């Protein structure tokens, strides 16, 4: 059936997530203030005032309410599920997203070191694998067939994918609205990609995430009134990783849209290991911090990231041939790495 036939339910899911997220954001602000789960200026943090870091509550509740609606709404208004295993994966999505959100809340409270965070990320990846949300095959960029991986590679690749996405979103959450906005852009392109391929029932899921992130963004954009915290970044990272796989392994699309944040993380890990021997060390060496220290405003940097990621998403949708997507990835990687090398050679930032 045509996607337009299900436009009302897509709008309902999107608006439900957005309205609940908008409603919950002020509550998340008050909860953070009440329980002392706040960020104060100092060190890497250059914001003004005491700001709650429980904004992940708004993202999670908005998304989960819309996800529940996709199960409880009458079957006649929902797109048919073409995959008999989709319901099982949906259960895994709910469980994994909830576990990621729950651990993030604990991290907001106790500020864990890197080791327990990596252990938690590893276990979160195992939840995905247990619910058959894994990368089993990819399209061969040099032909029309698919490359099917053996099981050891499937497990290792899936673990790497989930841990990588969680850390990418977590490290991206350094400027007001940056992580939430880019997550919304990626969710929007996942919706479009899934609709184009006739995956109507699965497309409802990123539509729900799009609503939740856009509902939260007005409270998180500069100057932010509430931060998403680890609960939000862990939830978004895990959920985006899962949705990319559930939508038929849209790995190339995700890599293109997220090319700048992903390469920034890879460069930071390499550069920190090379200079300090500790990749997990905190610092203001992220690209967005470097640009901020060079005199760009938060809004200029965030909007620049938005524009770059959106342009990469349009590129991903417009390139039909697999080899062209591979060439685009290589070209973007070279360009982004050149920017990262340039930024890393600028005078180091002060952490007063």
What's the quick description here?
By secondary structure, this protein is mainly α.
Question: What does it look like?
Answer:
With 352 residues, this protein is mainly α. Helix content is 69%, strand content 3%. It is built from 13 helices and 4 strands. The chain has helices at residues 7-35, 56-72, 86-110, 114-130, 151-172, 178-196, 200-220, 229-246, 251-257, 259-275, 287-293, 298-318, 322-344; strands spanning 38-39, 51-52, 137-139, 146-148. Helix 1 (7-35) runs antiparallel to helix 2 and helix 4 crosses helix 5. The protein is globular and about 55 Å long. The termini are far apart.
Oligomer: single chain
Mean pLDDT across residues:
89
How far apart, in Å, are the first and last alpha carbons? Answer: 59 Å
Overall geometry comes to globular
Question: How would the blueprint of this fold be written?
Answer:
Elements: H1 7-35, E1 38-39, E2 51-52, H2 56-72, H3 86-110, H4 114-130, E3 137-139, E4 146-148, H5 151-172, H6 178-196, H7 200-220, H8 229-246, H9 251-257, H10 259-275, H11 287-293, H12 298-318, H13 322-344
Antiparallel strand pairs: 1-2, 3-4
Using brief descriptors, characterize the structure shown.
single chain, 352 residues, mainly alpha, two-stranded antiparallel ribbon, 4 strands, 69% helix, globular
């Amino acid at each position: 059936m045509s996607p337009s036939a299900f436009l009302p339910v897509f709008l309902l899911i999107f608006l439900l997530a957005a309205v609940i997220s908008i409603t919950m954001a002020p509550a998340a602000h008050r909860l953070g203030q009440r329980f002392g789960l706040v960020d104060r200026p100092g060190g890497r943090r250059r914001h003004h005032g005491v700001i709650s870091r429980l904004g992940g509550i708004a993202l999670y509740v908005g998304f989960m309410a819309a996800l529940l609606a996709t199960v409880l709404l009458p079957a006649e208004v929902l797109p048919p599920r073409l995959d008999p295993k989709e319901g099982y994966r949906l259960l895994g999505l709910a469980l994994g997203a909830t576990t990621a959100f729950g651990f993030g809340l604990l991290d907001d409270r106790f500020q864990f070191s890197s080791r327990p965070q990596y252990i938690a990320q590893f276990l979160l990846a195992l939840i995905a694998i247990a619910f058959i949300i894994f990368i089993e095959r990819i399209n061969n960029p040099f032909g029309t067939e698919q490359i099917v991986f053996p099981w050891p590679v499937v497990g290792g690749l899936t673990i790497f994918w989930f841990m990588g996405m969680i850390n990418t979103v977590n490290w991206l959450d350094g400027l007001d609205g940056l992580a939430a906005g880019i997550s919304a852009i990626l969710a929007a392109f996942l919706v479009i990609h899934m609709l184009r391929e006739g995956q109507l029932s699965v497309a409802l899921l990123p539509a729900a995430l799009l609503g939740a992130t856009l509902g939260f963004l007005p409270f998180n954009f500069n100057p932010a009134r509430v931060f998403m915290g680890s609960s939000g970044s862990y939830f978004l990272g895990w959920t985006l990783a899962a949705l990319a796989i559930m939508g038929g392994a849209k790995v190339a699309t995700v890599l293109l849209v997220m090319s700048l944040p992903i390469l920034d993380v890879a460069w930071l890990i390499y550069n920190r290991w090379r200079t300090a021997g500790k990749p997990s060390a905190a610092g203001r060496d992220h690209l967005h911090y470097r640009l901020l220290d060079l005199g760009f405003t938060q809004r200029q940097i965030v909007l620049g990231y938005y524009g770059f990621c959106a342009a990469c998403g349009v590129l991903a949708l417009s390139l039909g041939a697999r080899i062209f997507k591979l060439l685009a990835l290589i070209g973007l990687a070279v360009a982004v790495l050149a920017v990262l090398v340039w930024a890393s050679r600028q005078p180091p930032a002060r952490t007063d």
